[in-house]
Design a protein that fits this description.
By secondary structure, the chain is of the alpha/beta class. The chain has two domains: 34 residues, no CATH class; 227 residues, 3-Layer(aba) Sandwich (Rossmann fold), CATH 3.40.50.1820. Helix content is 35%, strand content 15%. It is built from nine helices and seven strands; from the N terminus they run ααβββααβαβαβαβαα. A seven-stranded mixed beta sheet has the order 1-2-4-3-5-6-7, sandwiched between helices. Helix 1 crosses helix 2.
Length: 283
């Protein structure tokens, strides 16, 4: 049964439609997001053939996260020429890259010999050191990356790709260790331009926000290929645009039609993987 909130949202959306305000005609993103919530407006989507790739799964004990950490790596049939490290969004885990966005399938469809690696950073960690002692960013950089490279027996060029909370985390990781990556792609990054606008779940107060403010360190991204994509009807679109405007180089991404959902992330995935592929194959 639908919840009371869903019923109210549905009634509001139907009222909008009944008033003759079509999705394409409305210039109010709040209206379009309302229609999306009740299934009356969709993001663009993109499907690629399922790739039959080798897959490694496991867990490890981390010095920076209290619980066992789960991970997955997929491998191309050709020798690995690069690794795409994927950072999941809020309320999700490492399986998001494979189950929701189908990154290995997109990589295979592009004909790129890239491994895809994802680790569970915690459903609401926001990929940085928190007051409770967990530090998923250090876990990613100092534990998971070496684990992956030990498993594949090489240290190929690396890229970061993240969605929502993970988009923010990918940007933060790239700024903290730019020498370790060639590219970073943030899809619908969960960004706020000031500490007062952030939800309590994302940062442990104003000081925590400023310690981990990706807007303040964009100059560190100069050596990398950096791409930001966000749906025009995403609530993070304004902050994502503000971040993209501060990049050292023009943003190859864009702000096209779409919401904050997996369909939109699948729709931009081929272009994002193309950006990563070009960066990892550059000399």
């Amino acid at each position: 049964m639908p919840t009371r909130r869903q019923v109210l949202l549905g009634a509001a959306a139907l009222a909008v439609v009944g008033a003759g305000v079509a999705y394409e005609e409305s210039d109010d993103p709040r209206v379009r997001r309302l229609l999306h919530k009740v299934g009356l407006a969709d993001s663009p989507d993109h499907e690629v053939p399922v790739a039959h790739v080798d897959r490694l799964d496991g867990t490890f004990t981390s010095a920076h996260v209290p619980e066992p950490v789960s991970w997955t790596v997929t491998l191309p049939s050709a020798p690995v020429a690069g690794v795409v490290y994927c950072l999941h969004g809020h309320g999700n885990d490492h399986r998001m890259a494979f189950r929701d966005v189908h990154v290995p399938d997109v990589v295979a469809a592009a004909g790129l010999p890239l491994a895809v690696a994802a680790v569970d950073g915690g459903s609401n960690s926001y990929w940085h050191a928190r007051a409770d002692g967990r530090d998923p960013l250090t876990m990613l950089l100092d534990e998971f990356v070496p684990l992956v490279e030990a498993r594949i027996g090489a240290a190929p060029p690396r890229a970061l790709l993240g969605w929502s909370m993970g988009g923010y985390g990918a940007l933060l990781a790239a700024e903290r260790a730019p020498e370790r990556f060639r590219a970073v792609v943030a899809a619908s990054p969960a960004l706020w331009t000031e500490a007062g606008a952030t939800p309590a779940i994302a940062f442990d107060g104003s000081d925590d926000y400023h310690r981990n403010d990706v807007f303040a360190a964009t100059a560190k991204l100069a050596p990398l290929a950096v791409r930001v994509d966000c749906g025009a009807d995403d609530s993070f679109a304004d902050a994502a645009r503000a971040f993209a405007d501060r990049l050292p180089h023009p943003n190859p991404g864009g702000f096209t039609a779409g919401f904050h959902d997996a369909a939109y992330w699948r729709s931009v995935a081929p272009a994002e993987i193309a950006t990563i592929g070009a960066a990892l194959h550059s000399t």
